[in-house]
Amino acid sequence: ILAYEVARQLGSAAAYAERCESAPGREFRRGTRFSPGSRVLLVDDILTTGGSVRETLEALTHHPVEVVAGAVLVDRSGGSVTFSVPLMALVTLDVEPWASAECPQCTLGEPLAKPGSTVASGVTPGIL
User: Fold this and answer.
1) In terms of Cα–Cα distance, which of 118, 53, 63 is closest to 84?
2) Are the beta carbons of 67 and 86 closer than 8 angstroms?
3) Where residue 122 falls among pLDDT bands split at 50, 70, 90?
4) Average pLDDT for residues 74-82, to the nearest whole number?
5) Spatial separation of the C-alpha atoms in residues 27 and 18, rounded to whole Å
6) 61-75 burial: b if 16+ Cβ within 10 Å, else e
7) With contact defined as beta carbons under 8 Å apart, do 56 and 41 qualify?
8) CB 43 within 8 A of CB 127
9) Quick one: three-class SS letters along the chain?
10) What is the dihedral of CA 49, 50, 51, 55, to 10 degrees?
11) What's the angle, vertex CA 24, arms to CA 19 and CA 74, rounded to 5?
12) Which of the four, 13, 27, 72, 90, has the lowest number of CB atoms within 10 Å?
Protein backbone atom coordinates (compact mmCIF):
# COMPACT_ATOMS: atom_id res chain seq x y z
CA ILE A 1 0.00 0.00 0.00
CA LEU A 2 2.87 2.37 0.80
CA ALA A 3 4.44 1.97 -2.64
CA TYR A 4 1.10 2.55 -4.33
CA GLU A 5 0.58 5.84 -2.47
CA VAL A 6 4.15 6.97 -3.20
CA ALA A 7 3.56 6.13 -6.87
CA ARG A 8 0.27 8.03 -6.88
CA GLN A 9 1.97 11.10 -5.42
CA LEU A 10 4.72 10.87 -8.06
CA GLY A 11 2.28 10.24 -10.92
CA SER A 12 3.89 6.85 -11.56
CA ALA A 13 2.82 3.24 -11.80
CA ALA A 14 3.39 0.75 -8.97
CA ALA A 15 3.88 -3.01 -8.71
CA TYR A 16 4.84 -5.38 -5.95
CA ALA A 17 7.01 -8.43 -5.62
CA GLU A 18 5.40 -11.46 -4.04
CA ARG A 19 7.10 -14.31 -2.26
CA CYS A 20 7.67 -17.29 -4.55
CA GLU A 21 5.59 -20.29 -3.58
CA SER A 22 7.90 -22.94 -5.00
CA ALA A 23 11.35 -21.44 -4.32
CA PRO A 24 13.04 -18.84 -2.15
CA GLY A 25 12.88 -15.23 -3.26
CA ARG A 26 10.28 -13.00 -4.85
CA GLU A 27 8.65 -12.60 -8.21
CA PHE A 28 6.30 -10.26 -10.03
CA ARG A 29 2.97 -11.91 -10.80
CA ARG A 30 -0.57 -10.91 -11.74
CA GLY A 31 0.46 -9.78 -15.19
CA THR A 32 3.07 -7.26 -14.03
CA ARG A 33 4.95 -5.85 -17.02
CA PHE A 34 7.74 -3.29 -17.08
CA SER A 35 8.46 -1.10 -20.07
CA PRO A 36 12.05 -1.50 -21.27
CA GLY A 37 14.27 1.12 -19.68
CA SER A 38 11.80 1.96 -16.91
CA ARG A 39 13.39 3.71 -13.94
CA VAL A 40 12.41 1.98 -10.71
CA LEU A 41 12.27 3.20 -7.12
CA LEU A 42 11.98 0.29 -4.67
CA VAL A 43 9.78 1.25 -1.67
CA ASP A 44 9.37 -0.65 1.62
CA ASP A 45 8.14 0.25 5.07
CA ILE A 46 10.71 -1.22 7.49
CA LEU A 47 14.28 -2.33 6.79
CA THR A 48 15.90 -4.60 9.36
CA THR A 49 18.19 -7.13 7.68
CA GLY A 50 17.56 -6.08 4.09
CA GLY A 51 16.32 -9.52 3.05
CA SER A 52 13.08 -8.35 1.43
CA VAL A 53 14.81 -5.55 -0.45
CA ARG A 54 17.57 -7.91 -1.67
CA GLU A 55 14.99 -10.44 -2.88
CA THR A 56 13.09 -7.71 -4.72
CA LEU A 57 16.27 -6.34 -6.30
CA GLU A 58 17.07 -9.88 -7.47
CA ALA A 59 13.56 -10.26 -8.94
CA LEU A 60 14.05 -7.00 -10.83
CA THR A 61 17.17 -8.35 -12.57
CA HIS A 62 14.81 -10.45 -14.71
CA HIS A 63 13.17 -7.31 -16.15
CA PRO A 64 14.49 -4.59 -18.50
CA VAL A 65 14.54 -1.85 -15.85
CA GLU A 66 16.99 0.49 -14.14
CA VAL A 67 16.66 0.48 -10.35
CA VAL A 68 17.67 4.00 -9.34
CA ALA A 69 17.20 3.86 -5.55
CA GLY A 70 15.46 2.33 -2.58
CA ALA A 71 13.33 4.17 -0.02
CA VAL A 72 12.09 3.02 3.37
CA LEU A 73 10.17 4.69 6.16
CA VAL A 74 12.39 3.21 8.88
CA ASP A 75 15.89 1.75 8.60
CA ARG A 76 16.36 -0.34 11.75
CA SER A 77 19.88 -1.36 10.72
CA GLY A 78 21.39 1.97 11.74
CA GLY A 79 22.50 2.42 8.14
CA SER A 80 24.66 -0.71 8.17
CA VAL A 81 22.73 -2.56 5.45
CA THR A 82 23.78 -1.53 1.95
CA PHE A 83 22.62 -2.41 -1.53
CA SER A 84 23.73 -1.94 -5.12
CA VAL A 85 21.56 1.21 -5.25
CA PRO A 86 21.35 4.18 -2.88
CA LEU A 87 18.92 3.78 0.02
CA MET A 88 17.00 6.67 1.56
CA ALA A 89 15.22 6.37 4.92
CA LEU A 90 12.84 8.76 6.61
CA VAL A 91 14.15 7.55 9.99
CA THR A 92 17.31 5.58 10.77
CA LEU A 93 17.50 3.68 14.07
CA ASP A 94 20.31 1.58 15.46
CA VAL A 95 18.29 -1.31 16.91
CA GLU A 96 20.43 -3.86 18.71
CA PRO A 97 19.71 -7.41 17.54
CA TRP A 98 19.75 -10.18 20.12
CA ALA A 99 20.67 -13.84 19.71
CA SER A 100 17.78 -15.84 21.18
CA ALA A 101 20.05 -17.20 23.93
CA GLU A 102 20.86 -13.63 25.01
CA CYS A 103 17.44 -12.01 24.55
CA PRO A 104 16.10 -10.66 27.87
CA GLN A 105 12.47 -11.47 26.98
CA CYS A 106 13.44 -14.98 25.86
CA THR A 107 15.18 -15.72 29.16
CA LEU A 108 12.03 -14.58 30.99
CA GLY A 109 9.91 -16.89 28.84
CA GLU A 110 7.91 -14.04 27.32
CA PRO A 111 6.29 -14.88 23.97
CA LEU A 112 7.79 -13.01 21.05
CA ALA A 113 6.14 -11.83 17.86
CA LYS A 114 7.53 -10.42 14.65
CA PRO A 115 5.46 -7.27 14.14
CA GLY A 116 5.93 -5.88 10.68
CA SER A 117 7.61 -9.05 9.46
CA THR A 118 6.92 -10.12 5.91
CA VAL A 119 6.52 -13.61 7.33
CA ALA A 120 3.79 -12.49 9.72
CA SER A 121 2.02 -9.92 7.58
CA GLY A 122 2.63 -11.04 4.01
CA VAL A 123 3.68 -7.47 3.13
CA THR A 124 6.17 -7.14 0.33
CA PRO A 125 8.20 -4.24 -0.96
CA GLY A 126 6.59 -2.23 -3.71
CA ILE A 127 8.03 -0.97 -6.92
CA LEU A 128 7.38 2.37 -8.58
Assistant:
1) 53
2) no
3) very low
4) 95
5) 5
6) eebebebeebbbebb
7) no
8) yes
9) CHHHHHHHHHCCCCEECEECCCCCCEECCCCCCCCCCEEEEEEEEEECCCHHHHHHHHHHCCCCEEEEEEEEEEECECCCCCCCCCEEEEEECECCCCCCCCCHHHHCCCCCCCCCCHHHHCCCCEEC
10) 180
11) 55
12) 90
**The model's pTM:** 0.77
| Domains of the chain with CATH codes | 2-127 (3.40.50.2020)
Closest Cα partner for 32 from 59, 7, 50, 72?
Answer: 59
Give me the half-sphere count of Cα atoms (radius 13 Å) on the Cβ side of residue 89: 18
In whole angstroms, what is the distance from residue 18 CA to residue 99 CA? 28
Residue 121 is predicted with a pLDDT of: 43
